[in-house]
Amino acid sequence: MEKVRDIVREGKRVAKEDPRRVVHSFKVGLVLSLVSSFYYYQPLYDSFGVNAMWAVMTVVVVFEFSVGATLGKGLNRVAATLFAGALGIGAHHLASLSGPTGEPILLAVFVFIQGKLYIYQ
């Protein structure tokens, strides 16, 4: 019971310091509940399938404290996805030109190069 009291005290302290953080936490909880309905509500799940879980992950990754930050992060995510898709298509095209023997080798090299670039920025 003491842990519950500590959590409530901490919540009150945070609410006094910056009430916007409490409002933001309720907004995140509401959005996650709504988006999770794609995964748990059977007719929506039948339409979207397991891919509905990516909507939940997107909310977790993109949702920020302010609307502008969320919009900016979302637009950056869209641009990065399009760029990564173009890189993937280009790598596949280049690898397919090398024939059935060279294709898996080139794809492995491309994956290695991208992994190295992303890790050692």
TrEMBL record:
Q: Which UniProt keywords apply?
A: Ion channel, Ion transport, Membrane, Transmembrane, Transmembrane helix, Transport
Membrane-crossing segments per the record = 21-40, 52-71
UniProt subcellular location: Membrane
Q: Does the keyword Transmembrane apply?
A: yes
> Which Gene Ontology cellular component terms are annotated?
membrane
Q: How does it sit in the membrane?
A: Multi-pass membrane protein
Supply one GO BP term: monoatomic ion transmembrane transport
Protein family (similarity comment):
Belongs to the aromatic acid exporter (TC 2.A.85) family.
This one is known as Aluminum-activated malate transporter
Q: Give the organism the record lists.
A: Eruca vesicaria subsp. sativa
